[in-house]
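[Automated response] Your request has been received and processed.

Submitted sequence:
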Amino acid sequence: MPAAPKPAPSVLLVFGEDEFAVRQRAREVYQQWTAEAGGMDHEIIDAGVANSGEALKAIGRLREALQTLPFFGGAKVVWLKDCNFLGDERAASSADVTEALASLAQDLKEFDWKDVRLLVSAGKVDKRKVFYKTLDRIGSVESFAGWSADDRHWADEAETMAARALRARQKSISDEALAELVSRIGPNPRQLANEVEKLSLYVGDRAEIGLEDVDAVCSRNKTARAFALGDALGDRDLPRLLRRLDEEFWEMQFDSDKSEIGLLYGLISKVRALLMLKEMLREGWIKPEADYSRFKAQLGRIPADKLPADRRFNPLALNPYVLYKALPQVKHYSETELVEAMARLLQCNQRLVSSGLDERLVLQQALVAIVSRPETAPVPA
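Generated structure:
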């Protein structure tokens, strides 16, 4: 006899660093629960607080909402929304808030959930605390970790999200266009969702989205613009490289997250990728390929035991589309030139951190030395 289906939880905690995904999922659950419950007596409690006093008020409002029955009877849904005192935030560290959450947790264990459902959405959550453990025990929890450029799989997850969102709009997208879209946006779910909406509106009734559509309307965030600097280096195009460098210096005045060292590390990553591709071509693991899908399939066939465990030197730790875009650029440099380029960039790093020289001049000199060719030298094959 088949097991009875597990009943839907009356309590759900949705949390994680991916703020966009958390809000989207919580909104979806709230709409579903209220539709199933019917009625008009559902409550949303704003739990995004600035201090412990506001946190205590939010907890008090939640208690009242759970104890107040619907005016016309029936079921009730309560949403504690955007809660920011369940992790290591300042409000969460208050002894009064900790005590109030522990008391609330005990009440939730004993609560009769027959006609009431509780949804909690939050950012950071401390899993060691009794409140989280209680929600996990009496209900269900869903976690949405934020994407990071250091995560090998972020690009795959971003492509899956974008493709799913486009299918929901009855649109399809080519593999190369999808990879270009994700490469332009980087690990930013909210902006990716905005660009998907923009693309869908741009193509109108047309179902298929191509690379030319992405080029026409999609924005480039600062991560993608940094890639443009590396692309100019890979193409060995000195005028474009210096223009891109000037643009980066200009933006650095208004973006505290940018620095000369950050630009340098991006250029080191680019040269390292070119060296990796050189080696993979020499070993016969990959072949020059104009089609992105076939190139990506080649990467999947490389024996994992042939590659270094250190992610810094493992080409499969890079976004496949970054490697695909760099593949035609390999022919612009010999292996010796790339090794020398790494040495120049490492020397540039030492000069940036240990000398009083102008950082911009140091970077410019290094890049000119890398990209310039002797007048009589043939183009390296």
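Summary generated for your ticket: Residues 154-217 form a domain with the Helicase, Ruva Protein; domain 3 fold (CATH 1.10.8.60). DSSP finds 15 helices and seven strands in the chain.
If you did not submit this request, please reply to this message.
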